[in-house]
Amino acid sequence: MKKIIFVSAALAISLNAATNEEILGLYSGAPKDIKIEITDRKAVDGLDGFEAVVLKMSQGDMSQEDIAFTKDNLFIPDLVNVKTGMSYKDQIRQTRVYSLLADVYPKEEAKNIIKLGNDAKKPTLVVFTDAECPYCRKEMEKAEDRLKTHNLEIVMTSVHGESGNVKSALIYKETAKAKSDDEKLKVLHKYYNMTEKGDKSKVSDAEFKAAEDLAKKYQSNGINGVPFIVEKDKISK
């Protein structure tokens, strides 16, 4: 009897839920060169009748995900627990990003990871960052302090187009020659300085494309904002 009631309730929710077409219709005013599609829908744990809707927004070879919620004929940008302040969007997004990164990051080429610290007793933080980002700049100022308690693995993932990718390429080029963490940090602080302008003439087309492709790879796997910092254990299989 309980199984029948459960199935009937599930069918009622399904029949009353907004369709993909209805949801996508809400984005009809988006620019024509932006493609929007629904890639997943899942029930939200602990919230009867609510579904999380995963939307993929693409423009050329760039894409990013957004998450919204629906119940019956309602479409809601986020659900927030007012007692705890927890955002269901942030929670689901984090889980999805960790899962995506766990498929990609363990396979990353060593040349694309700037390693600082090598203490087996310390946990490791993976930092996705951009030398042109003011928030990343503030985070980079804390690098020496973070190294007191953690090892760091830095991946340059610019969200600032050409200027950011030029700096990323220069950082990889110069840190590859560094013989110590102090020398690597000196390079990083140099290019994270807001007055430093990356010299594109010192970057080959191949080096620029490698930096650009690296950023796009991680953006397509959930890194839509930087700095993005995660414990390495959480994205290691």
TrEMBL record:
<protein>
    <recommendedName>
        <fullName>Thioredoxin-like fold domain-containing protein</fullName>
    </recommendedName>
</protein>
<dbReference type="InterPro" id="IPR036249">
    <property type="entry name" value="Thioredoxin-like_sf"/>
</dbReference>
<dbReference type="InterPro" id="IPR012336">
    <property type="entry name" value="Thioredoxin-like_fold"/>
</dbReference>
<dbReference type="Pfam" id="PF13462">
    <property type="entry name" value="Thioredoxin_4"/>
</dbReference>
<feature type="domain" description="Thioredoxin-like fold">
    <location>
        <begin position="114"/>
        <end position="216"/>
    </location>
</feature>
